[in-house]
Amino acid sequence: MAPRIRKVSVSLFHSQPLSNPSPRCQCLRQQTERPFSSTSSRNSTRLRDAMYSWLNGPGAVFRHPLPGSTNYLSAYDPSGRLIRATDKKRPKDPESDADMETETPTLEKNIQGEQEIPKETLDDLMPFPMNRQFRSEPVLSEELKDRIFQLWKEEGKSVRRISADMQVEMRRVGAVLRLKSVEEEWKNQGKPLATPYARAILSMLPVTRYTPHLPITAHEPINDLPVHSSTLRQVFHPVSESRRFTRTDAGRVFHPTLLPADERIPHPELIDAYRDLSSGMSAEEREMAAQRREKKEADIKEAKRRIWAEEEERRVKKVEAGRWEFRFRDISVEDAGRDGRGRKGVGARYGMPHEDRKKGIVKIPRRVE
Q1: Looking at residue 355, what is its pLDDT?
Q2: pLDDT < 70 positions in the chain
Q3: Helix or strand run (H / E) with residue 143
Q4: How far is 35 from 40, CA to CA, in rounded Å?
Q5: Helix (H) or strand (E) segment spanning residue 324
Q6: Distances from the Cα of 159 to the Cαs of 151, 164, 173, 294, 314, in angstroms?
Q7: What is the Cβ-side half-sphere exposure of residue 154, based on CA atoms within 13 angstroms?
Q8: What pLDDT digit, counting tens, does each position of 171-196 carry?
Q9: Contact, 75 vs 66, CB < 8 A?
């Protein structure tokens, strides 16, 4: 059956406009001017209205972020005001850890120096409102990275000394030096750098800044004691009262070769520096003593490296054959251990692939038994 076409009043297509059109004609005229769609022209929901009301109200502060500070939702109240900049107290969160220390807000100036705002607390460093246990960790500023690279390249300081002076962990210092070396090499080659991207990321994260002629701000703990696997068990070791039981003796109780805590920390030289300070030595004398200790440590490392190189040279047998030099080394099968995966075994560096991953091996049965 053919579809029926709705009849329309002839007055809609009249060449002359009607002087007094009827309400029915106006209704039909409005229907013909509507676009071909089955939905209403205004499809607004309650959530959509709430989103736009928030964007035009409290959320308007995020269009122009606060310079020199993080701009997380947790730092603002429902009215869009910065909580730490007002006298309003932050409500306690029952889900947060009660034992976690809270920092006392301190005043700091933003990058433009326009106004003084309190420094972020732990409650302001929560980028995800639904995950109140996560706190954003600070990152190193570009000025601090440049200073670390300058101390290593121009002044010739060691990684350990830079870590102690700048209050940055040694592994992070090593990573900064490697990345800065690559950046300097790229600049010499004329390669473009993602500087705008790095600047945008640093503007959204908490940053540990460096300012010359001001006290160094500690970025992270640098002298945490690593947990040794031998100290995870509980030991009852009887000791007489007259015996002098030291940390060295306590380490030997857990393991015969376990060093005391004073020697296992990343910066044992800080203990000697504190002893020099407690003994009343001047700044010049403490600096000279630190340099002597560093030189002594460097000499010991160089002697160990030289002995190791000599041992490796003796283990390798060299045979000159014209243009080539063949090197032979004695290998023992027992070095691989029972499972064949020993650290000293041949090929342990590259792993032990399965037989089906090797080339040249027939992987299908060649006969039926």
Answers
A1: 65
A2: 1-44, 87-115, 347-357, 369
A3: helix 142-153
A4: 10
A5: strand 324-329
A6: 9, 9, 7, 11, 32
A7: 6
A8: 999 999 999 999 999 999 999 999 99
A9: no
Structure tokens at 84: 């730490």
Give the residue from 208, 206, 121, 136 showing the smallest Cα distance to 167: 208
Structure tokens at 341: 């995966």
Give residue 93's pLDDT: 54
Cβ(363)–Cβ(357) under 8 Å?
Answer: no
Instruction: State whether the Cα torsion 147-153-156-157 is positive or negative.
Output: positive
Give the type of residue at 74. S
Whether the CB-CB separation of 123 and 190 falls below 8 Å is answered with no
Residue at token pair 């990573």: 175
In the Cβ-directed half-sphere of 228, how many Cα atoms lie within 13 Å? 16
The answer to whether 166 and 216 have CB atoms below 8 angstroms apart is yes
Instruction: State the pLDDT at residue 226.
Output: 82
Question: What pLDDT shows up at residue 105?
Answer: 47
Q: Which of 266, 265, 148 shows the shortest CA–CA distance to 208? A: 148
Please tell me the predicted confidence (pLDDT) of residue 192. 92
Residue 320 CA to residue 271 CA, distance in Å, equals 52
| Per-residue model confidence (pLDDT) at position 112 | 40
Give the DSSP letter string of 197-215.
HHHHHHTTS-EE---TTSP
Q: Is 220 helix (H, G, I), strand (E, B) or coil?
A: coil
Distance CA 168, CA 157 (A): 14
Query: Angle at CA 42, nearest 5°, toward 41 and 45?
Result: 145
DSSP states of 229-271 as a string?
GGGGS-------TTS---HHHHHHHH-TTPPPHHHHSS-THHH
Distance of CA 255 to the CA centre of its chain: 34
d(CA 294, CA 200): 40
